[in-house]
Amino acid sequence: MRLATWNINSIRSRADRALAFLERSGTDVLALQETKCKDEQFPRAVFEAAGYEVATSGFSQWNGVAIISRVGITDVEQGFVGQPAWGEEPVVEARALGATCGGVRVWSLYIPNGRELDNPHYAYKLAWLERLKEQAAAWLAPDGAGDATAQIALVGDWNVAPLDEDVWDIEVFAGRTHVSPAERAAFAAFAAAGYTEVTREHIPARTYTYWDYQQLRFPRNEGMRIDFAYASPALAARVTGVTVDRNERKGKGASDHVPVIVDLAD
User: Fold this and answer.
1) Computed over its alpha carbons, how large is the radius of gyration of the chain?
2) Strand pairing report for 74-78 and 239-244
3) DSSP-based three-state secondary structure for 155
4) Are 168 and 222 in contact (CB under 8 A)?
5) What confidence tier does 146 reach under pLDDT thresholds 50, 70, 90?
6) Number of Cβ within a 10 Å radius of residue 155
7) pLDDT tens, position by position, 26-45
8) Would you give the DSSP letter of residue 246?
9) Cα(58)–Cα(196) distance, rounded to whole angstroms?
10) I need a surface site. Which of 13, 65, 132, 215 has the fewest CB within 10 A?
11) What is the percent of the chain with per-residue pLDDT over 90, rounded to a whole number?
12) CA 265, CA 249: separation in Å to the nearest integer?
């Protein structure tokens, strides 16, 4: 089975590109982030006509996550238990979508950006990660609340660069989000909860997954690695390879992120 995650940065602008990627890469399950549309606006017909099933979570022109699968979609969940809310009139944003595809419980995740270290959105980001970690640990708990043999994939745009090598110049990021000790600790906590970040050992250092549109970041390879895949023990044991499709950042109409592809043994 081939599983990919991709911050598409508007599915309505890039539906044809997403379908072409699916067909070219042979991807079975694609987790999308930043779809930027309501559920009823998602161009699902494009994918359904090609034999894929689609699950979505989108409430406005912001955020939004989706899962596209040709190996089935069942038990769809919009959001996770206890997911923090945001805003003056707090709402639970469309940032997490779970579904079982081909026997794997896939979560498409769009972690909050954080904005600035002194911004309330930063505290929201840390709370969001903490609550997700608590739920992820419970899904594996051996006390009856979870299943230690579960096949779970937590994939998406984590908006954290866990290591200095995950940004093109760590000095540029001094005092900024994505590289702060608290964010990195929140990311690492998923390993303590029993999960393995499976892309690291398969991808060379300084392989990025995101390049800003401004200041010729992509041609200069001034990128960030912020798209990751945490896997439960049973699923991590099935990983045979990981690739980053850097070519998807090229050409007209590209997203600022590229797909991260995880191959799983049967």
Assistant:
1) 17
2) unpaired
3) strand
4) yes
5) confident
6) 27
7) 999 999 999 999 999 999 99
8) G
9) 28
10) 215
11) 97
12) 28
Three-state secondary-structure class, residue 109: strand
Neighbours of 116 (CB within 10 A): 12
Q: CA 24 to CA 8: how far, in whole Å?
A: 16
Residue by residue, DSSP assigns 180-226 as SHHHHHHHHHHHHTT-EE-SGGGS-TT--SB--SSTTTTTTT--B--
Which tokens sit at 191? 């390993």
Position 213 scores a pLDDT of 96
- For residue 234, count CB atoms less than 10 angstroms from its CB and return exposed for 0-12, middle for 13-18, buried for 19 or more: middle
Q: Are strands 227-231 and 196-197 parallel, antiparallel or unpaired?
A: antiparallel
What whole-number distance in Å separates Cα of residue 64 and Cα of residue 36?
5
Q: In one letter, which amino acid is 219?
A: P
What is the 8-class DSSP label of residue 103? T
The DSSP secondary-structure symbol of 84 reads P
* 222 within 8 A of 214, measured Cβ to Cβ: no
Token match 């990919």: residue?
4
- Note the pLDDT of residue 147: 84
- Amino acid in the structure at residue 50: A
Place of tokens 């599983």: 3
Residues in the chain: 266
Burial of 114 (0-12, 13-18, 19+ CB in 10 A): buried
Task: Give just the sign of the alpha carbon dihedral 19, 25, 30, 34.
Answer: negative
Which numeric CATH code is attached to 2-264?
3.60.10.10
Helix (H) or strand (E) holding 129: helix 120-140
Annotated domain spans of the chain? 2-264
